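Researcher: I've been going back and forth with a colleague about how CRISPR-associated endoribonuclease Cas6 might be arranged in three dimensions. Neither of us has a model we trust, so I'd like an independent prediction. The organism is Natrinema hispanicum, in case that matters for your notes. Sequence below.
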Amino acid sequence: MRVLIDLEAEMDAAYDPEYHGRLRARMWDALRDTPYDEHGAQTPGFSFSNPFPWGDLNEGDERQLLIASPREEQLAHIVADLLENPEVHAGSMPFRVTDTRPLDPDVGPPGTEGVLETATGVYAVTPPKYLDDPDEHDDETFWRSEHGMEAFFDHVETQLQRNHDRFMPSDDPGPKEVDAPLFESYEMIKKLWLDVQLSGDVEWTVLVSKWRFPYRVRDDHHRRHLNLALDVGIGRRTPLGFGFLNRQLENDE
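Model: Here is an independent structure prediction for CRISPR-associated endoribonuclease Cas6. You can compare it with whatever you and your colleague have in mind.
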């Protein structure tokens, strides 16, 4: 489940690619004193896109933001607070919420073909077993092409399994508990380094990658896994806005 948020720029501003920290803080502000006030949890559930479309802002310009979660009530708390307190800062970009509407994307029943695309970069970490000398690396060695695609998908499926364990029925197998892969084909769009404010006084430069994943839904389990990825994102640090997925529509270029 996700919600489309309509935004209006409150002043002229350059587009700020370091929007992650302040947007995440706004989500936590909205969830304060609710049953979903889980600040610090590894799998808090929500994920969000960048404010789009990309580009510098003039006062009054319209932008949109997507917020997703496997828990409808969590989204309801966020939306209620955004409507009551409509001020939103995405990095240095000040917005006011003007409207919201729910969306429920679905990859489709078994046999459906489509494409999932990352709207924001995937923060992927290479599991130590794929490194030549794991002792020389820390716990968050950014994935690079030379580490291989097996390492990338192992990380992605492991992170999704953690969300599956928390949010999905225990008798449904997760993406690491089935033989077939989550994605059978892929296209890397690009890799890029980003400066990200992780907290008030901590900034980190991270390596992320953007992807397209053509898919064909194998069965109902695969459908649930892909739809969960649409709700929670893929990779690590998805509550910071990394790894947000969209389903590419047929008329998209």
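Researcher: What would you highlight for our discussion?
Model: I'd start with this: The chain has a mean pLDDT of 93. After that, consider the following. The first strand starts at residue 2 and ends at 9.
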